[in-house]
Amino acid sequence: MEFPGKYLKAERESRNLSLKEVSESTKIKERFLKDIEDDQYEHLPHPVYVKGFLNIYAKYLGLDP
Fold first, then answer.
1. Helices then strands (H, E): number in the chain?
2. Whole-prediction pTM value?
3. Phi-psi map region of 3: left, alpha, beta (phi>0 left; psi -120 to 50 alpha)
């Protein structure tokens, strides 16, 4: 099974979007997006926030969260 961060990164890159563009549109800090894509969840805030970030990010990419 693929990790969510790797999947989101691949989807973002397939749409030719930069982390900066995603950050500006979703209001999620760029460093948090980078940590999500690298599956470095220990660097992120409380899991409740991470779940929200994943939902917002997936919806932004047009994916089913």
1. 4, 0
2. 0.89
3. beta
CA distances from 21 to 1, 42, 60 (A): 28, 24, 11
Angle at 54 between CA 3 and CA 39, to 5 degrees: 35
Residue for token pair 């979007």: 17
Question: Which tens digits make up the pLDDT trace of 19-62?
Answer: 999 999 999 999 999 999 999 989 899 999 999 999 999 999 99
Sign of CA dihedral 42, 12, 30, 53: negative
Contacts 24+ apart (CB under 8 A), 50-56: 53/28, 54/4, 54/8, 56/26, 56/28
Q: How long, in residues, is the chain?
A: 65
